[in-house]
Amino acid sequence: MVLAFLVVVYTYLGLAAALSKEGWRTQSIYQLLTDRYARTNGSEAPCDDLGIYCGGTWRGIIDKLDYIQDMGFTAIWISPITAQIPGLTYEGTAYHGFWPQQINQVNPNFGTPEDLLALSGALHDRGMYLMVDTVSNDMAWNGNYTTVDFSIFDVFNEANYYHSYCPVTNYQNATQATQCWTGDQHITLPDLATENTVVIDKWQTWVANYTSYYGIDGIRLDACLEQDMEFFPYFEKSAGVYVMCEVYNYPIDGVCAYQEYVSGLLNFPVWYLITDAFGSISGSMSNLYDGLTEVQGNCTDVSLLGNFVENHDVDRLPYTVSDIGLDQNAIAFVMVNDGIPIIYAGEEQHYSGGAPPANRETTWTSGYNTSTVYYQLIKQLNEFRTCVISKDDTY
Ligand SMILES: *[C@@H]1O[C@H](CO)[C@@H](O)[C@H](O)[C@H]1NC(C)=O
Ligand SMILES: *[C@@H]1O[C@H](CO)[C@@H](O)[C@H](O)[C@H]1NC(C)=O
Ligand SMILES: *[C@@H]1O[C@H](CO)[C@@H](O)[C@H](O)[C@H]1NC(C)=O
Ligand SMILES: *[C@@H]1O[C@H](CO)[C@@H](O)[C@H](O)[C@H]1NC(C)=O
Ligand SMILES: *[C@@H]1O[C@H](CO)[C@@H](O)[C@H](O)[C@H]1NC(C)=O
Ligand SMILES: *[C@@H]1O[C@H](CO)[C@@H](O)[C@H](O)[C@H]1NC(C)=O
């Protein structure tokens, strides 16, 4: 109740209030890929190649905020904003935003700094919040590890900010995952030494300005399994906002261990359980129940976990599940489970792409139809959740 009141006051005064972890508990997040969401000129022409830029921009998103807000979402999670490997590579272009090079410049394909500020302002004017996907594990180089020129990176511009080269071959080995390099022989991801105090200090200075300058209310942090755990408290403290870490493909207790260092986590443990329980008519509800109990037993605070059934890295559920009853139950589960619900753009249009980039469809192809069964289902579930949590005074 108190929070809801404060939100109204802040909105009324037009102030951009950075959102604490407590504030994020009551939000409902819509994840979108900036390049795939909406074009500045509103063109809904198809994109022929999902491996390269399709033309989505921050200005385009501003024009679609009614569509998002009317579905009941209070926050959006957008792609990384930083300048990337330019041009076409052997693996397509950096349309996804996970190949950073100049972290003090924005990706010109998505717009100008003024456009990003306009998006942040437009969200805050509506009482909505901005979460930005952020990469702190590495920089990106178009070529193999023998050819990296560190001087082109604009903050971490010397080799001594990075671990020396070794490839990660086993992500379950924490030493290797945190100290070796990811990427491959075409796109190399030089691995920042996030345990090094100079690197930590530079990230702290950068992130404090990043959140305040652009009015960023929350951060989705990429590749946390590949970074030193002790880095996260420093990063989150300087960010001054809720940070939600990605720890993919790891056991429940291993994932939950990260919550000792960072406020939020993507709920990958429960994602595996959901895809199992709702992936077929023989899916096991008792496994889901037992798994939820294990997550509750291991994680510090399940109300700060981000629940999802789809995202840009995994197959969409309808890729393998044609039974819409199962699929709609999976969405309903995500919307009412303890934690923060996250719906990935396209779920409301029953998109069905498999492995990337097929699961990174352009949203404009749907015509942003608000009459679809899925759009209306998600809208009703958001209304239901808002109603339930507004009656709980502990928030
Ligand atoms: C709209 O913008 C795209 C680039 O994003 C461009 O290819 C297209 O020609 C433009 N369409 C119109 C009608 O201006
Ligand atoms: C903060 O970030 C903005 C945008 O990247 C940049 O223009 C500005 O110079 C930065 N300010 C400081 C103090 O670093
Ligand atoms: C790295 O790339 C360079 C230039 O393309 C090539 O000459 C070299 O053989 C490559 N090395 C490895 C280890 O792939
Ligand atoms: C983990 O990886 C490190 C670095 O590659 C290696 O030295 C170590 O033997 C590995 N540990 C296990 C248990 O495989
Ligand atoms: C923590 O998770 C592990 C599986 O990763 C499980 O075996 C254990 O029972 C859980 N602990 C609690 C207290 O639930
Ligand atoms: C929008 O979706 C509804 C329900 O599926 C359908 O009847 C309608 O034709 C769609 N509208 C457009 C413009 O495609």
What does the model show?
The strands form three sheets. This protein has an eight-stranded parallel β-barrel with strand order 1-2-5-9-10-11-12-13. A three-stranded antiparallel β-sheet has the order 6-8-7, with no helix packed on it. It has 15 helices and 13 strands. The protein has a single domain (3-390), classed as Alpha-Beta Barrel (TIM Barrel). The radius of gyration is 20 Å and the shape is globular. The model is unreliable at 1-16 (pLDDT under 50). Strand 9 (218-221), helix 9 (231-239) and strand 10 form a beta-alpha-beta unit. The protein has helices spanning 2-13, 21-24, 34-37, 58-62, 65-70, 113-125, 174-179, 197-214, 231-239, 252-257, 268-277, 285-298, 317-320, 324-336, 373-390, and strands at residues 29-31, 75-78, 82-84, 100-106, 129-134, 141-142, 182-183, 187-189, 218-221, 242-245, 264-266, 305-307, 340-344. It has 395 residues and is of the alpha/beta class. Residues 251-253, 294, 297-298 line the site of one 2-acetamido-2-deoxy-beta-D-glucopyranose.
Based on the model shown, name its key terms:
395 residues, binds 2-acetamido-2-deoxy-beta-D-glucopyranose, 8-stranded parallel barrel, TIM Barrel, disordered N terminus
